[in-house]
Amino acid sequence: MTDILERIRSFEKTKDFFIGIDSDGCVFDSMGVKHKECFCPAFINVMNLQGVSDAAREVWEFVNLFSKTRGINRFKALILSLDFLREHPEVKKRGVEVPRMDALREWTERESALGMSGLLREIDEHPHPDLLQARDWSEEVNLAVGRIVRNLAPFPAVPDALKQMVRHADTMVVSQTPVANIEHEWKENGIHDYVQTIAGQEMGSKAFHLKTAAYERYEPSSILMIGDAPGDYSAAQEIGALFYPIIPGGEETAWRRFVDEALPAFLDGKYRGEYEKSLLDDFHRSLPSTPHGIIHDF
Ligand SMILES: [Mg+2]
Question: Which domain of life is it from (predicted)?
């Protein structure tokens, strides 16, 4: 933990501008394959939801892809999905028991670095069955990601956007994915050298990454976070930074607009205010907060 944290603590300021970049669903079109092929099958298997697998899939995809919680930490996503699933009409009709995971819930509310190493430490002290089940699920997800997720490419406009950014700004990946996975994906695609540091799940929350590397080191209007999820936006808000949304479903357009319009506005000090607000309005409209009216009969 300490060595890895040191990587963001030692982030070196070399320019006047800072840009934090989310990876999954923002740089890479990876959210669909990860959630549909890796997270969700493990959710159904390890949480014993075979009897309501369609409902489980609907809820998992809603929470992780198509709503305001898109991109949240996996353990928080697990709890939220189970909570929604318990309310799903199909589940009520069939009387299937959905785990409550109260010990995991308690841990996620107390702990800030919600990664596997933190969970394993917690298990050493309190080996509660909920925590063991969450560990088994998370391990199954990691194995599936290792086995299935490959050949991912960045959205086509991303390499050019990165090239433009680094001419004027210090850059860092700000993500909740394990660092090893991000490093592998960025290296595989030859874009690793465009960022100074990769901050992942093991180094705390996205807000913590931004606070550690950028807050009070750059002017608030010179710090920009780029992301595809509301969690990216709130991380930016926590330090008073600017936010550029990569709108789910319109990623390529968003990246082209970044190069043509948003990056120049940011560098000219014309980003905050009306311009940012119109982008944020589009972003918030694209993601609902509850499954009512989205999932059938909910
Ligand atoms: Mg993302």
Answer: Bacteria
**How much distance in Å is there from the Cα of 228 to the middle of ligand 1?**
5
Residue 221 Cα to ligand 1 middle (Å): 22
Distance from residue 226's CA to the centre of ligand 1 (Å): 9
**Do 22 and 37 share a domain, yes or no?**
no
Whole domain around residue 46: which residue ranges?
A: 31-148
Query: How many domains does the chain contain in total?
Result: 2
Q: Identify whether 294 is part of a domain.
A: no
Give the distance (Å) from ligand 1 centre to CA of residue 72.
8
Distance from residue 128's CA to the centre of ligand 1 (Å) = 31
- Residue 224 CA, ligand 1 centroid: distance in Å: 15
56 and 94 fall within a common domain:
yes
Q: Is 0.70 topped by the overall pTM?
A: yes
Last residue in a domain, options 101, 129, 148: 148
C-alpha 209 – ligand 1 centre gap (Å): 15
Cβ proximity of 178 and 74 under 8 Å: no
* Separation CA 174–CA 206 (nearest Å): 6
Compute, in angstroms, the gap from residue 276 CA to the centroid of ligand 1. Answer: 19
Q: Is 61 a residue whose pLDDT tops 80?
A: yes
Q: What is the mean pLDDT of the chain?
A: 94
Burial environment of residue 21 by CB neighbours within 10 A (0 to 12, 13 to 18, 19 or more) = buried
Residue 254 included in any domain: yes
Domain boundary among 148, 180, 205: 148
pLDDT in tens, 200-214: 988 889 999 999 999
Per-residue pLDDT reduced to its tens digit, 62-104 = 999 989 998 888 999 999 999 999 999 999 999 999 999 999 9
206 contacts 237 by C-beta, under 8 angstroms: no
- Domain shared by 12 and 160, yes or no: yes
Q: Is residue 267 part of a domain?
A: yes
CA 82 – CA 72 distance, rounded (Å): 14
Distance 115 CA to ligand 1 centre (A): 16
- What is the spatial distance between Cα 203 and Cα 199, in angstroms, rounded to a whole number? 6
